[in-house]
Automatic annotation (TrEMBL):
PANTHER family: FERRIC ENTEROBACTIN TRANSPORT PROTEIN FEPE, TYROSINE-PROTEIN KINASE. This is Capsule biosynthesis protein. InterPro entries: Bact_polysacc_biosynth/exp. It comes from the Bacteria. Residues 167-194 form a coiled coil. Keywords: Coiled coil, Membrane, Transmembrane, Transmembrane helix. The chain crosses the membrane at residues 329-347.
Amino acid sequence: MFLIGVGIPTLVALIYYGFVATDRYVSEASFVVRGISSSRTSGLEMFFRTFGLARTQDDTNVVQNYLLSRDAVRALEKQVPLRSYFSPAGADIISRFPRFWAGESFEDLYDYYLDRVSVTQQPSKGISVLRVQAFEPAQAKAIAEVLLKLGEAKVNEMNERAHGDAIGSAERDVDGAETILKNAQQALADFRNAEYLIDPGANAQSVLQTITTLSTALANTRAQIAQSSKNAPANPAASALETQSAAYSAGIEAERAKLAGSAAALASKLATYDRLILERTMAEKRLAAAISSLGSARQEARRQQIYIEEITEPNLPDKSTEPRRLRMIATFLVFSFALTAVGWLLVTGSKEHVSE
C-alpha cells in the first residue's frame, strides 16, 4: 500500500518536475488604484474602508476582476499572439496550451489564462500585484505590459462614463436655459420691430414731459387771460390768448391719449414690454444658475476620477521560478502519504470490525 499510495506518485512527480516540466518565467508588476480625493478621508470613510466599503477599494476590485475576465483575454488576443505564447514547440504536453485533456476553444484558453495570470491585493497597503507566467521572459513581460494598459483603458472608460453621467444632466439644463433665453430675446426683438419702439417706458417718460410742459404753458396762458380780463376787458389780445389756451388743452389731451385709453396707447404696450423684460431677466438668471451647476458638476466629476498608478513596471525575468519543483515534489509526497494513511486506517478499522 505504501509503495502504491506514496512511492509511485512521488516517483512520478519527481520524474515530471525534475526532468520533464518546462521552465516558466514570471513577470511581476505592482499598481494601485487611486482617486484624486483619496488622500483625505473622513472618519466615517475610514470606518467604511475598514470593512472594505471604500470607493477606491471597490474600483480596485473592478480593475482586478476585469484583468481576470474573458473581456481582458479577448482584448489581449488582439494585441499579442496569446495562443502561440502559451503553446511553444518545446513545452511539455502538461504545461502547454492546449492541455492534452482539453480542447482549443476560447473557454479552454480562458481556463489556461487563469492558471498563468493572477492579480492579488494587499488590503493593508491597497497595492495590487500582477503576476504573469510564460515560457519566455520577453513574452511574460509583454503580456503584463498589455494587461496594465488594458486596465488603464478600463479605468479611463469608467471615468468617461461617470463624467458623462454627472455632467450630461447639467449640460442639458444649460442648453435648455440657453434656448429659453434666446426665445425671450427673440420675442422682445419681435415686439420692438412690430411696435417701432425700443423702450415704451422711455417713450412714456417723454410724453409725460411733454404733458408737463404743455400744462405749464396752459397755466401761464390762462393766468394771462385772467389778468387781461381784469385789467383790460376789451384787449384785442385776449382772443389770441384764448386760441393759444385751447391749443395747449388739445395738445395735452392728445398726449394723454398716447399714454392710455386705447389699444394703441403706451400703457398696453408697456405692460407687454415689462412682461417680456421680466421673462428675459428670469431666463438670464436661469442660465446663470445652470452654468454654475455645470461648473460644480465638472469639479465633482474631476474629484471623483480614478487612475492607475504603477508602483513597479513589469520586469524582464532572467531566471525561471515556475514550476517550484522541490515544493511540488514535497506536496505530492505529503498529500499521497496523507491519503495512504487515511486509507490504511480505514482498511485496518474494517478488518478489526470484521474479526470482531
